[in-house]
Write a structure and sequence with these properties.
This protein has 197 residues and is an all-beta fold. The chain has two domains: 66 residues, no CATH class; 125 residues, Jelly Rolls (Sandwich). It has no helices and 13 strands. The strands form four sheets. A four-stranded antiparallel sheet has the order 4-13-6-11, with no helix packed on it. A four-stranded antiparallel sheet has the order 5-12-8-9, with no helix packed on it.
Amino acid sequence: MPIPEGNPVTIQDGSGTTSNQAVVTSAGALKVDGSTAGGGTVAIQGSQLLTITSTGNQSGVALSTQEISPAAANILDGNATADAATIITIPQNRIWVGSVTLSAAVVIAAGASPAVNALPNVTTTGASATPAAGAVVLGLAISLPANLAGSVTGDGANDVVTIWPVTVYAGATAAATLKLNFNSASAASATAVGYLR
C-alpha cells in the first residue's frame, strides 16, 4: 500500500499486538517510529541507503547485516583459454554465484575440409558438486559446412553467450570447479565473475 507523504500509517504485525507509525517525511524517505510498540522490532529491507537517527527515549539501535556486496576475500573470478582448463575453483562447502561468458570459434582450411559441428561448453567438476560433475552450465553450437576440393579460401564462424546467475555448490566433501571444454572448437575462452557465499 502506498504511504502518502506527510500522512502517518499504522503498521501492525499479524496478531495485531505490535504497531508502529510509518510516515513518508519527504520524497523517497520513510520514517518508522517504533516507540509506540513498547520495545517492538522494526525491520526495513531495501536497496537504498538507510539512515538511522536516534531520538526520544531509545536505548539503542540494532542493525541486521544482510550482505549487500561481498567481502574482498569472497570475490572469485577466473578465465580459461585452453581445452579442459579450469576457470575457477570453488572451495569445499562453499556456494559460488556469478555470471559465466563463453566465446568460441571454428575455422576450416582451404581445400577439401570436412564439415565441423563444434559444441564448446562449460561444465562442473567435483565429487560432491551441485550441479553434479559433468553438468553443462552453458554451451554453444557452431557449425560449418565442408569445404570442397580445390577451394582457395577457408571459412570460419564464432559466437559468444553469457548467462547469469549461475549457482554452484562445491559440496561438503570436495572442492568444485568450472571447466572449459572445446569439443571440436578451434579456439574458445570462458570467464566467470562472481563471489562465494
